[in-house]
């Protein structure tokens, strides 16, 4: 087992434990903080798998922007505490857990029966310069579409977050 | 030499299922959105592993687009949640039953 493999398994354990903790917390702030740990470890894993630019983007966008946005909203909204009985919540989890276990086993069989899945990955590194040249040479049109998508997201967010959403009944003779 | 390719895919599958379980079982709208984020992240992990295995940069390019989609999705989703909370006073998915569904 090489040093890289040790780092991989360590990061995998950190990611899985942090994610499991994140999705089971009752307090939303705790869950967001655990998720930041999980995304930081995923960024390190991207670096290990030879994508330094994407590792930086993962830390900036996921662990930085998205999770801080979540944190702001969690602190802004008043989240009501809801006590639910243990049995009810247990039966609520049952279908999801059964489906999850079944798809996990199917995916495991598919992965380990596939040709080449046991080959060890070589180390490699795509420098940010090479990645940028590749993406603007081969994928310039999807990049434009992605920028349009971000613009539409911005406009939609501004539209939804207006100061006072008008009620339907409050504008009687506006249309004449 | 890092690890077998199957291990990377297995990690991505486990992460994806954790995100799916989170999105299916939690009743808080914010937790549902967090589950979707976890699933997108797991898909990106699988793409990066495949990109390293076949020595092609296309996988990493797709992860870039996944990031763009995730960012805009979370912005619009959070704006929707804030808007609905102003309208109905709740972020619990069980309370959105105006249409008696």
Assembly type of the chains comes to heterodimer
| Biggest sheet record of chain B | none
Contiguous runs where pLDDT drops below 50 for at least 5 residues of chain B: none
**CA distance, first residue to last residue of chain B:** 54 Å
What pattern of helices and strands is seen along the backbone of chain A? HHHHHH
Q: Calculate the mean pLDDT score of chain A and round it.
A: 84
Q: Tell me, what's the shape of chain B?
A: elongated
Q: Count of DSSP helices of chain A?
A: 6
* Greatest interface (CB-CB under 8 A), with counts per chain: A-B, 84 and 70 residues
List the helices and strands and how they pair.
The complex is a heterodimer of chains A (176) and B (101).
Chain A: H1 3-24, H2 28-48, H3 52-76, H4 86-113, H5 128-138, H6 140-160
Chain B: H1 5-25, H2 29-54, H3 58-88
Helix pairs in contact in B: 1-2, 2-3
What brief labels describe this structure?
heterodimer, A: 176 residues, mainly alpha, disordered C terminus, B: 101 residues, 3 helices, 0% strand, elongated
Any overview of this molecule?
The complex is a heterodimer of chains A (176) and B (101). With 176 residues, chain A is mostly helical. Chain A has helices at 3-24, 28-48, 52-76, 86-113, 128-138, 140-160. Chain A is globular and about 55 Å long. The N and C termini of chain A lie far apart (77 Å). In chain A, 22% of the residues are buried. Chain B is mainly alpha-helical and 101 residues long. Chain B contains three helices and no strands. In chain B, helix 1 packs antiparallel against helix 2 (29-54). Chains A and B meet through helix 1, helix 2, helix 3, helix 4 and helix 5 of A and helix 1, helix 2 and helix 3 of B.
């Amino acid at each position: 087992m090489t040093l890289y493999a040790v780092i991989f398994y360590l990061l995998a354990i950190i990611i899985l434990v942090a994610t499991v903790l994140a999705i089971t917390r009752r307090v939303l702030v705790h869950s967001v903080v655990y998720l930041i740990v999980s995304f930081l470890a995923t960024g390190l894993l991207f670096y290990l798998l030879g994508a330094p630019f994407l590792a930086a983007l993962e830390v900036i966008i996921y662990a930085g922007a998205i999770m801080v946005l979540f944190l702001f909203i969690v602190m802004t909204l008043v989240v009501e505490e809801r006590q639910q009985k243990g049995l009810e919540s247990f039966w609520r989890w049952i279908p999801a857990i059964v489906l999850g276990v079944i798809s996990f086993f199917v995916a495991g069989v598919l992965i380990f029966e596939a040709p080449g899945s046991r080959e060890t990955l070589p180390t490699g590194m795509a420098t940010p310069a090479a990645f940028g040249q590749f993406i603007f040479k081969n994928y310039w049109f999807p990049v434009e579409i992605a920028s349009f998508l971000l613009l539409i997201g911005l406009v939609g967010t501004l539209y939804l977050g207006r100061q006072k959403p008008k009620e339907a009944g409050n504008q009687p003779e506006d249309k004449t | 030499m890092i690890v077998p390719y199957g291990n990377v895919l297995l990690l991505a599958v486990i992460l994806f299922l954790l995100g799916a379980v989170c999105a299916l079982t939690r009743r808080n709208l914010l937790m549902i959105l967090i589950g979707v984020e976890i699933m997108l992240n797991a898909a990106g992990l699988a793409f990066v592993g495949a990109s390293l295995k076949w020595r092609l940069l296309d996988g990493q390019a797709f992860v870039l687009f996944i990031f763009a989609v995730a960012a805009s999705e979370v912005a619009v989703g959070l704006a929707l949640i804030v808007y609905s909370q102003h309208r109905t006073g709740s972020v619990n998915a069980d309370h959105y039953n105006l249409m008696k569904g």
